[in-house]
Design goal:
two-stranded antiparallel ribbon; alpha+beta; tt1808, chain A; 32% helix; six-stranded mixed beta sheet
């Protein structure tokens, strides 16, 4: 996932043609994001953009789409339509080919295991709303997109077809840009939020850290698995994968 934050300010007193031009450009970006990247940019967010201060978050899947959308000509038009611009871009690097191969391998094993069972395996991109020890999301809002998850509370899919439950098992495949977060911040977030099991897959040394969390939301067990080992889920009996299978294609 690539995240871009476009920050700018348009005075409320700006001429109507400036606001209209700004809105047209933003609507174009929103349409491109929706068509190319299945990103959602609400009309309310678009309208709010022309009011000071304004912040628009656009989540895109591919860097080349971002570059195409923010080409120099478009950028010049966009810049001419706003007053006192302040562009701020924050990129999260796209997953590598090897990363996706390993995600696909784990997902394949999970899909075979959970076929016909009440739980379900899903892969990113899917927003997971977590709130740690808080009683509701608004008190400690956190949105993550794990590489692979297993959910057993499909009844937590709301009327807008959005999942609002807590995954039972989460898998993150480390990338250089996310390694620190996956090993520290996300570990703590998943544990505090009620996730039962967390796998951290390291492509560099072809190993896996397997965390099991207690009902009291603490680390119950930690295993470090290497090539030649078999990872066995502590939550789902019979779910086991040879690490040689996980890393066989890289």
């Amino acid at each position: 996932m690539v995240s871009i934050t476009l920050m700018s300010r348009i005075p409320i007193s700006a001429p109507l043609d400036v606001m209209n031009r700004s809105l047209a450009i933003i609507e174009f970006i929103a349409a491109m994001a929706s068509a190319c990247c299945r990103s959602s940019l609400g009309l309310g967010t678009v309208i709010a953009y022309v009011l000071p201060p304004a912040v628009v978050n656009v989540n895109l899947k591919t860097l080349f789409v971002v570059r195409a959308m923010l080409s120099p000509p478009l950028y010049r038009i966009f810049r001419s339509a706003i007053d006192r611009p302040a562009q701020s871009f924050s990129y999260i690097a796209l997953p590598t080919f090897t990363h996706q191969v390993v995600v696909n391998e784990i997902s394949w094993h999970f899909n075979n295991y959970f076929k016909g069972k009440p739980c379900r395996s899903l892969t990113a991109p899917l927003d997971i709303r977590l709130f740690g020890y808080a009683t509701k999301f608004e008190e400690d809002p956190n949105v993550v997109q794990p590489d692979v998850i297993v959910i057993c509370d499909e009844n937590k899919v709301n009327e807008k077809n959005k999942y609002e439950g807590i995954p039972s098992l989460v898998v993150e495949v480390l990338s250089p840009s996310t390694k620190g977060k996956d090993l520290a911040a996300k570990l703590n977030l998943y544990m505090k939020s009620g996730v039962l099991e967390y796998w951290v897959v390291n492509l560099e040394n072809e190993s896996i850290l397997q965390y099991s969390f207690s009902k009291e939301r603490d680390i119950d067990n930690l295993m470090s698995l290497q090539q030649g080992d078999t990872i066995q889920s502590t939550v789902f009996s019979g779910l086991e994968i040879l690490l040689s299978d996980i890393f066989s294609e890289i």
